[in-house]
Amino acid sequence: MALALESGELDLAFQIPAETLGRLRARGDLGTMTILGGYQYYVIPNTTRPPLDDVRVRRAIQAAMDPRVMVRAARGGEVSMGFFPPPYPFSLNEPYQHDATLAARLLDEAGWRPGADGIRSKDGKRLSFSLVSLSSWPDMLVYSPIVRSQLAKVGIEIVPRVVENFLAVAQPGDFDLLFRVTHGAPAGDPIFQLNDALRSTGSRNFGRYQSESLDRKLVELEAASALDERWALAREAQRMVRAEAPIIPLAVTPFHIGMSRRLRGYEIFGADYYILRDDLVVRD
């Protein structure tokens, strides 16, 4: 898309790689902007695959990853502090603990011991996982080697895997760890995404997570009518997710956008749902 913008084939290129921004800005006939939307990047562990069925291993992965490094490398975004990005009123806004020492202690408790090459093993099996990235999301390809490096420091081997079709991998559970990017609350309310991604019967519960206690909390949230009560229940649900690590939020998604002069002054909304609107005007 960045190349098509440069050649004049496009007037607007939404979600271009960060490394193209400097080149585009150097041209006098093009402009760029970077915005934050309602999307977040997550890592989903497949909780049906041992040892990812052990909460200590999932929490170790959560603690070992430091999204601050990823955000700097992607030249945009914000570190996630909950299942929902700010500024939703039901966002948790409580920083995750990114601590390699904690990660190592959790793995020790789970019986995984470092080998001669630094990678941990247990009962003759190496602590090794595939990490699936989607080729059409540039930031995932930036994050993947960082995750690999950070997890290697605590004795976890990561084998990167890039795919073109997300659902072909996600729906059958053909992964160990899976990058996902999605809008946290497309309807402005917390229940949809929690039900969809984390309820035991959720249609996009790709990690196959099962939790009776979280299911009960989501039933409470569904029934609550007062906004203050809904927001409080949503925060409680997010704390439960943090403690169990069935989904690990990483970063609020940056959108890098290139525009021609003909779209000068056009304001981009914070999601790709609304690129084309009734106020979009192209001027020659």
Question: Which consecutive residue ranges, at least 5 long each, have pLDDT under 50?
Answer: none
Rg from C-alpha positions?
20 Å
Strand residues, percent: 15-25%
Indicate the CATH class: Alpha Beta
Notable characteristics:
284 residues, alpha+beta, single chain, Dipeptide-binding Protein, domain 3, seven-stranded mixed beta sheet
Sum this structure up briefly.
With 284 residues, the protein is an alpha+beta fold. It has one domain: Dipeptide-binding Protein, domain 3.
Summarize the structure in words:
This protein has ten helices and ten strands. The chain is of the alpha+beta class and 284 residues long. It has one domain (2-260): Dipeptide-binding Protein, domain 3 (Roll), CATH 3.10.105.10. A hairpin with a 5-residue loop joins strand 4 and strand 5. Helix 3 (55-64) packs antiparallel against helix 5 (100-109). The protein is globular and about 65 Å long. The model has no long low-confidence stretch (mean pLDDT 92).
